[in-house]
Design goal:
The longest helix has 25 residues. This protein has a single domain, classed as Tetrapyrrole methylase, N-terminal domain (Cobalt-precorrin-4 Transmethylase, domain 1, 3-Layer(aba) Sandwich). By secondary structure, it is α/β, with parallel strands linked by helices. The strands form two sheets. The protein has a seven-stranded mixed sheet with strand order 1-9-6-2-5-3-4, with helices on both faces. Strands 7-8 form a two-stranded antiparallel sheet. The radius of gyration is 18 Å and the shape is globular.
């Protein structure tokens, strides 16, 4: 019953730009409150500072984007973020704008060619970086799709994996296991070393490099989550399949922990 009411009333309301700005502003205030009331530790922050005004491709899992926004804002990062054309994506673009990020609309499923063209043009300009969730917008979770590597191959810009975790969190029951952080906790972020993709790389080497980036990103998440004894996040979950399983009452449950 609630689902029907939501679809009939709230979903159309969320499509209005003015209402999206209001929600984005409230979300931004909450994010700042959480970030500023928590203890923060950023590992390899010098890598972030080195590339924040240079052509680089910062990659992070779809479910681990929330608390990266204040780091971007406080670091003075000049960057574009790829976001979905869906109304949820447009609202997130407004939220990102409040933290200093510009939007490139599209995804691997929709508008892929135009996104690639615009991202390459921006990176070749030489004064902005690019932010991408390589498992978005609909999964499979914790699986790196090809987009970030194509940007790196065509521009020479390095791929820089970034991840965060925290002590007191709420892991949402959705395909990406989106991580919401409570105030007054500890937040830890790790910036990985740059990974370069040669412009003349073969198809086999390209796949090896994709797997290398994926392994680095998964290892980042596992290491950080293990420190806070969080449940083990699964790989391979897809948005559509997860929603269908959830409606049927047999979606996968998070139970396993590192310790």
């Amino acid at each position: 019953m609630f689902r029907k009411i939501w679809k009939k009333f709230w979903e159309p309301v969320l499509g209005f730009a003015g209402f999206q700005w209001i929600i984005a502003l409230v979300m931004a205030m909450l994010i700042w409150f959480i970030y500023l009331t928590s203890r923060r530790e950023i590992i390899n922050y010098e890598i972030f500072k080195k590339f924040r005004h240079k052509p680089a491709i910062f990659v992070f899992w779809h479910g681990r984007s929330l608390m990266l926004s204040p780091i971007v804002a406080l670091g003075g990062m000049k960057s574009y973020a790829i976001t979905s054309r869906h109304k949820d994506g447009r609202m997130m673009a407004k939220l990102q704008h409040l933290f200093g990020l510009r939007a490139i609309y599209g995804s691997s499923h929709s508008g892929g060619v135009s996104v690639l063209r615009e991202g390459v043009r921006m990176l070749r300009r030489g004064d902005h970086s690019l932010c991408i969730s390589p498992d978005g917008p609909g999964g499979p979770s914790l699986r790196v799709q090809d987009g970030a590597l194509y940007f790196a191959k065509m521009t020479g810009a390095p791929i820089i994996p970034v991840c965060f975790s925290a002590r007191h969190v709420w892991i949402q029951n959705r395909w990406d296991r989106y991580l919401l952080v409570y105030p007054f906790t500890k937040i830890k972020c790790k910036v990985g070393n740059p990974v370069y993709v040669d412009s003349k790389i073969s198809a086999e080497e390209f796949e090896q490099k994709r797997k290398e980036v994926e392994d680095i990103m998964v290892a980042q998440l596992r290491e950080l989550d293990a420190e806070f004894d969080l449940p083990v996040i699964e790989q391979g979950l897809k948005s559509g399949e997860f929603k269908r399983a959830k409606r049927e009452g047999n979606e996968p449950k998070l139970t396993k922990r590192y310790h």
